[in-house]
Design goal:
The chain has one helix and four strands. By secondary structure, it is mostly helical.
Length: about 220
């Protein structure tokens, strides 16, 4: 009497050994944990009642052995079918895993490329920032130089204005001094002319006085 059979899991086709007393009970697959109810038709029907004993011939022995071999062959075929189904499922899962690994590898490459591109962008950003800082420094330096040039220009203009005013004052002062000198010279000339005229008058009076006294005064003039 058969008290157990090897049957595949309805889901993952894992070959399971089930006892007859589990008929009508819910079992769980040891591999995928799928639960299912063991049905009576999964077990072979009980053998027919044995015929009354009769002399065992060699033919009957061969028939019995052939029947046992056929039963064993059916069980082996069932096991092979279950194993083939399990292998097919395993191959399918392996293929899916390989596809997922390929997708992961692709995503990893994409991530690596994105990281590389991000690093390039960060490098470009740093370069642009350095250029911007350099431009700011140059603008500050240019602004400072412009202010210095404006200050020097204003100082030069102020100095030129002061020099011009100084030259004007000096020129005016020179003109005044020349005018004063000319005036003084004119006054001296006039004083000398007046003195000469006075001397001449006195000389003329002296001459007349001498002539009235009978003294002849010879002038060398």
């Amino acid at each position: 009497m058969v008290d157990h059979i090897d049957m595949p899991c309805p889901k993952c086709r894992q070959l399971l050994r089930v006892r007859k007393q589990h008929i009508g009970h819910r079992l769980a697959c040891t591999r995928c944990k799928h639960t299912f109810v063991v049905k009576a038709e999964s077990f072979p029907p009980p053998p027919a009642p044995a015929p009354p004993p009769r002399p065992v011939s060699e033919t009957d022995t061969l028939k019995q052995r052939l029947s046992a071999l056929e039963t064993e062959l059916r069980q082996v075929r069932g096991a092979l079918a279950a194993s083939a189904s399990c292998e097919s499922e395993t191959a399918r899962q392996l293929q899916e895993a390989q596809q997922e690994l390929a997708q992961v590898a692709t995503l990893r490459e994409q991530l690596r490329a994105a990281l590389s591109e991000s690093e390039k962008l960060r490098t470009q950003a740093r370069t642009l920032q350095e250029k911007a800082d350099r431009v700011d420094r140059l603008e500050d330096e240019l602004r400072a130089r412009g202010e210095e040039i404006a200050r020097l220009t204003q100082e030069r203009e102020t100095r030129e204005k002061e020099e011009k005013e100084h030259r004007a004052r000096e020129a005016e002062k020179g003109t005044e001094e020349r005018a004063a000198a000319q005036k003084e010279s004119e006054e001296r000339r006039q004083a000398l002319e007046a003195e000469v005229a006075r001397c001449r008058r006195e000389l003329s009076i002296l001459r007349r006085t001498l002539q009235s006294l009978g003294i002849v005064f010879e002038s060398g003039a």
